[in-house]
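Ex. 9. Protein: Inner membrane protein YgaP-like transmembrane domain-containing protein.
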Amino acid sequence: MKKNMGAADRIIRIIVAIVLAILFFTHTVTGTAGIVIIIIAAVFLATSFVGFCPLYTIFGIKTCKVHPSEHKQAS
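Predicted structure tokens for Inner membrane protein YgaP-like transmembrane domain-containing protein:
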């Protein structure tokens, strides 16, 4: 599994996950919406720590920098 997320993308996901968790644990968002945002927060944290997002692969998105060695192999 190759990384497809850059550092900025990973940091943004972690910040969003923290904000969503705060909303859930302070009972600002409850019920079904609360469960949904805590699941989204968990997914954001997991993908940011791994550096790989399956949806990025489906849509052909890559936010990480291409290393010169990878660029030469593609040619």
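Check your answer against this statement. The chain has one domain: 7-74.
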